[in-house]
Design brief:
The complex is a heterotrimer of chains A (about 325), B (about 450) and C (about 270).
Chain A lengths: L1 E3 L12 H12 L6 E3 L14 E4 L4 E4 L1 H10 L9 H23 L4 H10 L9 H17 L13 H18 L12 H15 L6 H8 L1 H14 L9 H12 L11 H25 L4 E3 L10 E3 L3 H7 L3
Parallel strand pairs in A: 1-2
Antiparallel strand pairs in A: 1-3, 3-4, 5-6
Chain B lengths: L3 H12 L9 E8 L6 H5 L11 H17 L3 E10 L9 E10 L4 E9 L2 E11 L7 E9 L5 E9 L11 E13 L4 E16 L3 E16 L6 H4 L3 E15 L10 E14 L2 E16 L5 E13 L32 E2 L2 E2 L4 E11 L14 E12 L8 E12 L3 E12 L10 E6 L4
Parallel strand pairs in B: 1-3
Antiparallel strand pairs in B: 2-3, 4-5, 5-6, 6-7, 7-8, 8-9, 9-10, 10-11, 11-12, 12-13, 13-14, 14-17, 15-16, 17-18, 18-19, 19-20, 20-21
Helix pairs in contact in B: 1-3
Chain C lengths: L6 H4 L3 H4 L7 E5 L8 H16 L4 E5 L3 H4 L10 E4 L2 E4 L1 H10 L10 H28 L1 H13 L6 H19 L7 H19 L12 H15 L7 H8 L2 H19 L1
Helix pairs in contact in C: 3-6, 3-10, 6-7, 6-8, 6-9, 6-10, 9-11, 10-12
Classes of the chains: A alpha+beta (about 325), B mainly beta (about 450), C alpha+beta (about 270).
GO cellular component, one term (chain A): SAM complex
Keywords (chain A): Membrane, Mitochondrion, Mitochondrion outer membrane, Protein transport, Transmembrane, Transmembrane helix, Transport
Subcellular location (chain A): Mitochondrion outer membrane
């Protein structure tokens, strides 16, 4: 069997929610013999989303979390069932999914970051198209759950209800989880895959605006839970972190100023402004002088001997560029 | 070249010769540069040329023919030439009139922006003029605005200038439209989509009539959580079937800053909420009179009145978006948009009867002569406007006066910047005591 | 184990504080006889049952455009409930209101039971609402025979056809969002069957899901199941009724609630 997922980032095995859920399920159910591949494109999936699984015995394709899990269950790879499992998963999905989706693909501050994450993991012509499918999915979520459209101005994005639901749900998870290793009765369960996937994305993603992260960080047991499970089930080389992110993290830890623009001391910035202003005005005066828009006449007068600059049309041009 | 009139008339004046004394007849008319236009469509436009008796007539008729041809909507540009008839059997005072023109291309497009009160819109229009060779014109117009009042229009227009009734300038058009209006003051939005059949023509006394039938679906949405319940109760889709007549008379010298002339426009509607039931009538009239005074000043008196009659037995009351809202910088200055009128649950509830009048004294800018043509873009005005809702009497009348400066944009729109002082208002009215900014096409 | 705060968001709940609970409760819903659809009816019945369980009086007003009046709501947007100036739609916000006012049926519940309550409720709501929407709008026969006639009944021609296709499009979009649009009828019944098993296991041989007193979950389950039982459906989808009928505990449960809260009306 082969499973196709997005490659990870931020020390995670995958960047995608459903991919993470499936991966975790495989680990929890201890299924051997599944080859995990990250060199794939959503183009080959039936529904345009990863993950998908190909059963090598009859070459059948299973796309999406539910179909994959149902197939695996049918094959006999089950976890100790609890009848509450499905209700829990449903509850978590209903409450966390909308706001997480909005944070990832709806929030204008984050969208570029997340799109880039997906685009980098999709081969060439498709990388322009498939990430936008997630945005469209998010649009559906917003319309269905909160009655607004992503095309509305940001001020009209009424996410309060979603946000309260999501945060309540995080509290609920945190409370129920306590210090246990697994969510239900300390044994591995399907719901762990879902919770792990959600929490991993919430806690590990580095986004410009991540309200859920700061909320979840206050519940210490959540990050402990994620770290434990990650350490237990995934070894180092299954997780991935790009050089760029590594460098960013390093920088954050060391708190060193480098040559990046907004970290320059103000004197530097001022110097740069003055320099660019100077060069621009020299260029403009040069152009003006050589093309005859204005000329400098040194007038000889009886008593005074001072140069006099006369401007003609040039006034209009300089006004805008004085700074 | 170009329009023959100015050139020809100047020559006639400068030469000091009376062309009436020259006998002339038009032997031949050439119209060149036409490709897909059908012959019968243009023939009527220059028929009168043949009737001319002297050279003065030829010049005048050429000019009319030129205007008629341009009006057909098939030429991009057009030149007229008059020459003597050089054919063998020509009489010695025979003339040949030739029109050289370029047809409009198959498809033309425009992209632009529109600015309105509190709103900006991006517009795109694609037009295909003269599709079948007789001036038929199909266009798609799309505008996308910041507050999501999106408009989509498809219009097919067919003129009948070439038929025997051509003098009445009959035109038929079919539009399929979809647009939404926002009513931020009452916190709702209404979407309107459907089609519109229009027949318009010019009747004697230069009154333009247009008879329209509109059929569509109207839907009111509550725009946010604060929308009061009485508006919510009107939300939802509704069938809208309207017979409409618009009559207009315009003798003003100019549209934006007229100094003399009269303009009247009345709209009458019969409204039904299903195909077989019509239970409401709506009338709305706008009129203005301009009187020139001394020193470039002019006096303007304008008024508006609107009334709705309903028969509750036949259909449900009209939805709130069909009612009148009084007040705003383009109508009753000194009041907020929809700020004059009765309120319910904190929002204006609209009224079935309103009237408003305005008295303006328009003056050019002081020292206008030093600004040249730039100064013509501006006018200052003193205004006094008053109006009322729900009654035709002067009880509880709302009045405001003020002074302002107006700026012309293009041939139709203007911007006003007024200092308003409301003189008389009712308790619930929302007034604007200081500066008020207005942008629009039609002002009171 | 720290529980982090969501206080600033609850500030918005001020709105709930201002609701006067003594005001009359008015329920707006589509016309019972001619217009209302399965999922809408279920949602309305659930709310009515809940209010009856709370011993609150309410008046029902029928109007054709009830669903367009709703200020919120993600599924059917019905019923619209008005308490003074407070307006809400669907089951959830109404429960929230009563919970906020400490008037809910589950005031003294243990944390564990409360968890079960919310999780079961989201499960029931999701599966049964989707099933009802699926039956009404995706089954060709039901769509033609019942749904289109009822939904279009309040609009004049040709608006009825326009509204039918608009609503169908919206519902299918909603179902697609929950990955339900491409299911077969058998798969849907299968899901309901599974849900019934879960519910029966939870119910056991008690009167209500959480012992001897009714809860929100009871109101919700009753609302949905009772509507499915009583709605006239063509034989092509009778499998659904049969599936639920298999579980005698559930039918008895519905009968019990009907007798207790609606007995007066029925006789």
């Amino acid at each position: 069997m082969e499973l196709f997922v997005y490659k990870g980032e931020y020390q995670l095995p995958s960047i995608d929610l459903d991919c993470l859920r499936v991966l975790m399920y495989i680990k929890l159910a201890d299924i051997q013999g599944i080859k995990i591949r990250t060199d794939c494109s959503p183009f080959h999936s039936n529904n345009g989303f990863l993950p998908y699984l190909i059963d090598s015995s009859d070459n059948k394709k299973y796309c999406g979390y539910e179909r994959i899990i149902n197939f695996l269950k049918k094959e006999g790879y089950t976890l100790d069932g609890s009848e509450k499992n499905e209700a829990y998963i449903m509850y978590i999905t209903q409450n966390l999914y909308p706001f997480l989706m909005y944070q990832l693909f709806g929030n204008p501050q984050n969208i570029d970051e997340t799109r880039a994450l997906y685009a980098l993991r999709t081969p060439f012509p498709f990388n322009f198209y498939y990430p936008s499918k997630y945005v469209r999915k998010c649009e559906q979520v917003c319309q269905n759950v909160a009655n607004f459209s992503l095309e509305d101005p940001v001020t009209a994005h009424d996410t309060t209800k979603m946000e309260v639901d999501a945060k309540k749900c995080l509290n609920w998870i945190s409370e129920r989880l306590g210090n246990k290793e697994f969510f239900i009765n300390g044994s591995q369960n399907e719901v762990d895959a879902t919770i792990f996937a959600y929490l991993a994305i919430i806690l590990k993603f580095q986004l410009p605006n991540n309200q859920l992260q700061s909320h979840a960080n206050q519940c210490k047991n959540l990050s402990r839970y994620v770290d434990n499970l990650k350490k237990k089930f995934f070894n180092e080389n299954e997780c991935f972190e790009s050089e760029k992110v590594k460098a960013q993290n390093l920088k954050k830890e060391q708190k060193v100023f480098t040559g990046q623009e907004d970290e320059d001391p103000p004197s530097e910035i001022r110097k740069r402004y003055i320099m660019s202003g100077l060069i621009a005005s020299i260029a403009m005066f040069g152009y003006g002088y050589f093309s005859g828009i204005f000329n400098i006449v040194i007038a000889e007068k009886l008593r005074l001997n001072e140069p006099e600059t006369s401007f003609s049309d040039f006034n209009d041009y300089t006004d805008n560029d004085d700074e | 070249m170009g329009s023959g009139k100015s050139k020809d008339s100047t020559t006639s004046n400068s030469a000091g010769v009376d062309f009436k004394n020259f006998k002339a007849r038009v032997a031949k008319i050439n119209i060149n540069g036409l490709d897909r236009t059908k012959d019968d469509y243009i023939q009527r436009a220059c028929k009168n040329l043949f009737a001319s008796k002297n050279f003065q007539d030829v010049l005048l008729e050429t000019n009319y023919a030129y205007e008629n041809l341009m009006e057909l909507g098939i030429f991009k540009n057009l030149h007229a030439f008059i020459d003597t008839d050089k054919s063998k059997d020509a009489s010695h005072h025979g003339y040949v009139v030739s029109f050289d023109g370029d047809e409009l291309p198959r498809i033309t497009g425009t992209i632009g922006t529109e600015i309105g009160q509190n709103d900006g819109a991006l517009t795109a229009e694609l037009t295909s003029p003269n599709i079948f060779g007789r001036g038929e014109r199909a266009s798609i117009h799309y505008s996308y605005s910041y507050i999501k009042a999106t408009e989509l229009n498809f219009k097919f227009l067919k003129p009948f200038y070439h038929k025997s009734l051509g003098d009445y300038k009959p035109e038929t058009s079919l539009s399929i439209f979809r647009h939404s209006n926002v009513f931020p003051w009452s916190r709702f939005r209404s979407d309107h989509s459907g089609f519109l059949l229009d027949l318009s023509f010019l009747a004697p006394l230069s009154i333009t009539h247009s008879f329209q039938y509109e059929f569509g679906v109207k839907e009111i949405y509550a725009s946010n959580k604060q929308t009061p319940f009485f508006i919510r109760q009107e939300c939802g889709p509704r069938l809208n079937s309207v017979f409409r007549h618009i009559g207009a008379f315009d003798s003003r010298d100019e549209r934006v800053f007229p100094t003399q002339g009269i303009y009247i426009r009345t709209t009458s509607e019969i409204i039904g909420d299903r195909l077989s039931k019509y239970g409401a009538m709506k009338f709305d009239t706008h009129g203005e009179v301009n009187v020139p005074l001394f020193a470039g000043m002019s006096l303007q008196l304008c008024g508006r009145i609107g009334r709705i009659f309903e028969d509750a037995k036949v259909m449900k009351p009209l939805p709130i978006d069909s009612l009148f809202f009084l007040g705003g910088p383009t109508t009753l200055r000194g009041f907020e948009l929809a700020g004059a009128g009765s309120y319910q649950d904190g929002v204006p509830k609209g009224s079935k009867l309103y009237w408003a009048t305005g008295l303006h004294l328009w003056t050019p800018l002081p020292f206008n002569q030093y600004f040249g043509s730039f100064g013509d873009l501006f006018r200052t005005h003193f205004f006094y406007n008053f109006g009322n809702c729900e009654t035709l009497s002067l009880d509880n009348v709302r009045t405001a006066c003020g002074v302002g400066i107006a700026f012309r944009i293009g041939e139709r729109a203007r911007i006003e910047f007024n200092y308003c002082y409301p003189l008389k208002k009712q308790k619930s009215d929302k007034t604007v005591k200081n500066f008020q900014f207005a942008i629009g096409y039609e002002f009171l | 184990m720290a529980k982090s705060t969501i206080n600033q968001l609850y500030l918005n709940m001020n709105e709930l504080d201002r609701v006067e609970m003594n005001e009359k409760i008015i329920i707006y819903q589509p016309y019972d006889e001619v217009q209302i659809l399965l999922a809408e009816n279920a949602s309305c019945l659930a709310v009515k049952t809940y209010l009856k369980m709370l011993n609150r009086d309410f008046t029902v007003k029928s109007c054709a455009n009830a669903e367009f009046m709703a200020p919120s709501g993600k599924r059917t947007k019905l019923p619209v409930v008005q308490i003074g100036n407070f307006i809400a739609a669907e089951f959830d916000p109404i429960i929230n209101l009563f919970e906020h006012k400490s008037m809910s049926l589950t005031e003294n519940f243990e944390a564990e039971d409360k968890d079960d309550l919310v999780t079961y409720m989201s499960l029931v709501d999701m599966i049964l609402t989707n099933t009802e929407l699926y039956i009404s709008w995706c089954d060709e026969l039901v769509l033609k025979e019942i749904t289109k006639k009822r939904n279009g009944s309040v609009y004049p021609f040709p608006l009825n056809h326009i509204q039918n296709s608009r609503k169908r499009y919206a519902v299918i979009k909603q179902l697609r969002f929950y990955d339900w649009a491409n299911l077969t009828f058998e798969e849907v019944v299968d899901k309901v069957d599974k849900l019934c098993q879960t519910l029966v296991a939870k119910l056991g041989d008690r009167d209500y899901f959480f012992g001897s007193n009714p809860t929100e979950l009871d109101a919700l389950v009753f609302g949905h199941l009772f509507c499915i039982f009583t709605m006239e459906l063509p034989s092509s989808v009778s499998l659904l009724k049969e599936t639920i009928n298999k579980y005698s505990q559930l039918t008895q449960f519905c009968g019990r609630i009907e007798k207790k809260y609606f007995g007066k009306i029925k006789n």
